[in-house]
Amino acid sequence: MAPWFEEDTYEAQAYIETLRAAPKTHVSKELLVGAASFEAALEYEKHVAAHGKPESHAEAKSILSGVAQHFLNRVIEDKELVDIDRSQVEWDVREKLDKLVDKEGY
Q: Which among 68, 76, 72 is positioned nearest to 25, based on CA atoms?
């Protein structure tokens, strides 16, 4: 399971709900933030398993941010979410992940 998020967390449920959403269905900003955070944590865990821990706090944040950005781009395009403020969602995800790395370590 993703570091920081277990299967019963909001982020895990948001991830599942976002992936299951039909195209052009309203997906809330909060749901996207949770889903992108979960995806970033999953991929970060895979990265650490394959390459070891990042050398710095900043590198860990950069990896998480990049994965979250990719996920958001893919979901917003695939689901045709035209009513989403993409920049606000990206900011909220980055802030959430930065706080997690600051609190929990990397």
A: 76
The total number of residues written for the chain in this structure: 106
CA distance readout (Å), 98 to 16, 79, 80, 92: 22, 26, 27, 10
Residue-wise pLDDT tens digits, 15-52: 999 999 999 988 999 999 999 999 999 999 899 999 99
CA–CA gap between residue 7 and residue 91 (Å, rounded): 24
For residues 37 and 5, give the distance between their C-alpha atoms in angstroms, rounded to a whole number. 9
pLDDT at residue number 3: 61
Its pTM stands at 0.89
**What is the rounded distance in angstroms from the CA atom of residue 44 to the CA atom of residue 100?**
13
Whole-Å CA distances, 75 to 1, 37, 60:
21, 13, 23
Q: Where are the domains of the chain?
A: 29-104
